[in-house]
Amino acid sequence: MKPYQLTYLISSQVPEEEAKNVQEKITSFIGKEGGVLNETTVPTRRKLAHRIKGGREAFLANLNFHLEPSRLEVLEKELKSEKQILRYLILNKKPEKVEKKRLLTRKPKAKKVELKELEQKIDEILEE
User: Fold this and answer.
1) Strand 44-52 relative to strand 85-92: parallel, antiparallel, unpaired?
2) What is the three-state SS of 17-56?
3) What confidence score (pLDDT) does residue 99 get?
4) Residue ranges of the domains in the chain?
5) How far apart are CA 40 and CA 34, in angstroms?
6) Digits of tens for pLDDT over the chain (128 positions)?
7) pTM
């Protein structure tokens, strides 16, 4: 299964409860197709930058889910058949990386050098 994100707009002429019902319908459809929901957002009313089908407002919602790529076409047909959905966008998401725990390794302690030994080494180097 691959991770996807679905973002969609529901007509603002629909009551808020009906917008939630549309979301429940989509989530149940994803479940029937063998998908797994990760995260959902409640449809919230937003002002649009430009008119879509005559409206200046719409309900915006997001779903993050995993689904087999072969079942994605069936989901798109279902989204197109919903009259309340004005627009939708399905994005392929990158799989989330699980952070690996870093193993703390101790560096070996350096030998302490006597000052006399250090001076001898410096003298040897300078003589060469």
Assistant:
1) unpaired
2) HHHHHHHHHHHHHHHHCCCEEEEECCCEEEEEEEEECCEE
3) 56
4) 2-92
5) 17
6) 899 999 999 998 889 899 899 999 999 999 998 889 988 889 999 998 888 888 889 999 999 999 999 999 999 999 999 889 999 999 998 876 655 555 556 666 677 778 888 888 888 888 87
7) 0.68
Query: What does DSSP assign to residue 51?
Result: E
Q: What six digits make up the tokens of 77?
A: 């047909």
- 15 CB burial (10 A radius; 0-12, 13-18, 19+): exposed
State how far the Cα of 66 lies from the Cα of 93, in Å rounded to an integer: 10
| CATH H-level superfamily of 2-92 | Ribosomal protein S6/Translation elongation factor EF1B (3.30.70.60)
Q: Please give the Cα distance from 70 to 77 (Å, whole number).
A: 13
- Cα R_g (the chain), whole angstroms: 30
Q: Residues, the chain, total?
A: 128
Distance CA 6, CA 4 (A): 7
